[in-house]
Every structure is written in C-alpha cells, then in structure tokens.
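Field log, afternoon session.

UNIT: design team B
ACTIVITY: writing a sequence onto a fixed backbone
BACKBONE:
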C-alpha cells in the first residue's frame, strides 16, 4: 500500500564531500523543515517561492544547538520529482551533520525512506510510468556515454512512446475483432479479415524492431564479452593492460603466470567491452594450471568475440594452431603481438586455420596497433552499424520477457486468422499482447513487483 506520509533520506553518497543533501517528500515536508531551519534573514520555508533557495542553519529544536549551516530549496506539489512537497537541505558533506539533520527530521514526524521510494512515489503519483522509473537505475549505473544516452532515452519516454504507439495499433485490431465477434451476423463495420491480418503483420514488425533495439541495448547494458586467448607467454596479459591503460594483470617472462580469468571493462567508442584475460592454453600436468586451461576454453566458448593472440617473434607451435582451430565459427581477430621484434612466426599457417579473419599486428608493450584492435572489435561486433546504438533502448529482463510475450501473442493471433479460425481466438491473443505491453508501463503492477523493482535503488532516490 502507498503510505501518504512524509519520508526523508540522505540523497548523496555517504562519505566526505563539499555538499550532502537531505531530501524530504510528503505533505509535512515544509512543516518539518520550518521546525528545523532558521534563516539568516528571517522568514520560513512556507514563505519561500517555489524552486527557490535560501541560506540558514539547521537548529536542534529540542536543545537549540546549531547543527550545520545549510542552503534550503523547496519544490511544491505537483511540480516536483515526486509530485509531492519536496524540501532539500544542502548541508556540508560530512556524514555526522547529514545524519543529525535526518534524525531530527524523523523525530519531528518524518519516516526514513525505503530504497527507491522517492522514484516509487513519482510512479505512483503518475509523473512517470514504470519503464521510466526503471530507467532511473540505468542512468545511475551508466558507465559509458552510450549507456547514459540509451538510459536517458528511456527515462525521457523513448521506450514508453514506442510501447504506447504499438498498443494503439493493437487496440485498433482488437476493437475490430470484438465487433466481428459480437455482430457476426451483421455488417457492423469491422475490417475484412485480410486487412486485420495485414495490420497484425505490421504490429509484428514493430514488436520485432523493439526487440532488436532491446538487443542493442543489452549490449550497452551488459557489455561485449571479449576472450583474450592464446598459448602461454604470447602477451595476453600485456594486451589486457595496454587496452585498459593500466597494469591490471601480472606480466612476467615465465609461461603460465596467469592461472585464473581476469575480467576488466574497457570503454571503446562508448561501448563497454568486458576484456577477459585467460590462462595460456597448453597441455600440462600441473593440476592448478590445468584448471586454468579449462577456464580459458570455457571463456573462449562463451565469449561474444575472441582476440586470438600469437607471438610474432617466435616460431609457431602446435598449441598456436590447435587454438586457432578451436575458434570454429566464433567472431575473432588474429592479434600478432611483439612485432617490435623481428617477425619469424609462419603467419601463413595461422591463416590456414583462421580463414579470412582480420589480422592485426601490435606490440602491447610499446602500444603499437592498439587503436587497430579497438577499431577491429567495434567493426566485428557492429559490422559498421555502430550508429544503430543511438536507437538502442535499455531493456531489463522483465521488460524483454513481456515484449517477447506480446510478440508471440501477435503472431498467434495473425496465424489464427490466416487459418480461418473464429475471430474469438485471435481476439484472445491480441488482448494478451495488449496487456503484456501495458505491464511494461506499469498498468498492472502488484506491490510485490514494485517492491522488487525499487529495492534495487539506493536510499534517497
């Protein structure tokens, strides 16, 4: 149940900083604020203009002690984030002052907010729909500019508008189907069956486009898994460090130094690439190294893209060629490392096992060719269509499942009409699609679902 009380929380990260914010939302926010704050020039929060700020002090109303010097802002309902009266107290950024101000607000009648409760109230009060509320967490967690752009598109209603447009088309079909069912013996103006089949086909295409956008958004959200594989001591860890611009993996001249999979994320042209440095792949009797080799093979199998590294300064070995054969149909780049030394590797043999895969020559220790590797990764994953990411939408597992459910129902309804079945069957399917899309927007959202969604938020948001 939505409790229409007043909530309070520290809305900035815990730790030292220039400013920390204590936020209140609810019908008693202004009243509680007036009991807490004394302004240097007199007056009260209730007298402040909307969207204005004023300088004052937080005073303990029980003993008159000054807690902190602050700047206070007020945003009255409905023109606020929650569509309730909101008061924000900008304190100095130390935890003691912030917690003291929040605790005093609680003593005066506020309740400490639950995780995500401010955004939850924005949804419950109709300022945003559920898909926009879920986008807030994607904005907060964005680690690249492309992730942020996609999350902001959803927050500003990009996903919502596409869903509403598709629902409108589906509703039109559903209305004609219901007319055909209710007035089957009369000419009540329902569209001919062939026209309804065509319209459902168009709906199916729109749902497919949404899922394609969602798949691109998944790449942005989860990143591209890149397995860096090769035999021991070809420079896999050096390549990881070079792409990251920092020393993350231990590098020695001793083969088999890396025993476990090390994963770090690199931001390449706005896309997160999850680089996974693996143990060198070779036959070994060492029990621990054998486990590392098994993990390397598993990483290669599960990766979206593979960087297959060979040492150009040494003759090829049977391990080099065997690893190349294991690539199978994987998307991969052949990375010839250590070209700052004379190249003696028989690269024609590599090409025989790797086919027409792109070959890039680098020196990880000198930094040569790294831009070519980055460019090659982007081209391999997006096939020159990186601009399509501008249309990507951040879709979570719940939303994707509902999109797929809607698409299946649309297909089922169209097939029912094509098979000459009664309009009742198609109408039932189309209704399922309509309701599934509505669930994305939050039209049907039980308390358990909302609690699960907003529990992922930080307190204060």
């Amino acid at each position: 149940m939505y409790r229409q009380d007043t909530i309070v929380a520290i809305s900035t990260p815990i730790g030292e900083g220039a400013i920390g914010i204590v936020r209140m939302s609810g019908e008693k926010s202004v009243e509680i604020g007036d009991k807490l704050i004394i302004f240097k020039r007199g007056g009260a929060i209730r007298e402040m203009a909307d969207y204005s700020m004023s300088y004052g002090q937080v005073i303990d109303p029980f003993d008159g002690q000054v807690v902190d010097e602050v700047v206070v802002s007020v945003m009255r309902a409905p023109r606020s984030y929650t569509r309730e009266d909101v008061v924000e107290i900008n304190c100095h950024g130390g935890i003691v002052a912030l917690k003291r101000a929040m605790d005093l607000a609680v003593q005066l009648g506020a309740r400490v907010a639950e995780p995500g409760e401010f955004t939850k109230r924005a949804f419950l009060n109709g300022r945003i729909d559920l898909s926009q509320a879920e986008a807030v967490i994607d904005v907060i967690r964005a680690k690249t500019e492309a992730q942020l752009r996609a999350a902001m598109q959803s927050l500003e209603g990009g996903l919502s508008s596409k869903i509403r447009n598709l629902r409108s088309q589906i509703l039109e079909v559903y209305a004609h189907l219901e007319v055909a069912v209710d007035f089957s013996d009369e000419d009540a103006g329902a569209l001919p069956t062939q026209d309804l089949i065509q319209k459902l086909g168009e709906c199916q295409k729109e749902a497919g486009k949404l899922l394609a956008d969602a798949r691109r958004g998944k790449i942005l959200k989860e990143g591209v898994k890149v397995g860096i594989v090769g035999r021991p001591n070809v420079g896999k860890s050096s390549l990881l460090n070079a792409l990251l611009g920092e020393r993350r993996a231990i590098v020695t001249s001793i083969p088999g130094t890396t025993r476990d999979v090390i994963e770090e994320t690199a931001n390449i042209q706005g896309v997160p690439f999850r680089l996974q440095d693996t143990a060198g792949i070779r036959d070994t009797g060492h029990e621990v190294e054998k486990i590392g080799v098994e993990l390397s093979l598993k990483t290669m199998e599960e990766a979206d893209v593979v960087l297959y590294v060979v040492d150009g300064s040494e003759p090829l070995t049977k391990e080099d060629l065997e690893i190349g054969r294991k690539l199978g149909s994987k998307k991969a780049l052949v990375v010839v490392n250590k070209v700052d030394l004379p190249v003696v590797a028989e690269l024609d043999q590599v090409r025989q096992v790797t086919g027409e895969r792109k070959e890039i020559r680098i020196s990880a220790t000198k930094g040569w060719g790294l831009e070519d590797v980055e460019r090659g990764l982007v081209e391999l994953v997006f096939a020159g269509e990186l601009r399509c990411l501008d249309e990507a939408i951040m879709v979570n597992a719940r939303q994707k499942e509902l999109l797929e459910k809607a698409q299946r129902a649309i297909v089922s309804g169209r097939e029912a009409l094509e098979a000459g079945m009664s309009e009742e069957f198609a109408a039932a399917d189309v209704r399922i699609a309509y309701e599934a899309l509505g669930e994305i927007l939050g039209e049907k959202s039980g308390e358990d679902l909302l609690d699960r969604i907003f529990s992922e938020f930080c307190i204060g948001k």
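LOG NOTE: The two ends are 19 Å apart (CA to CA).
NEXT ACTIVITY: expression trials, pending approval
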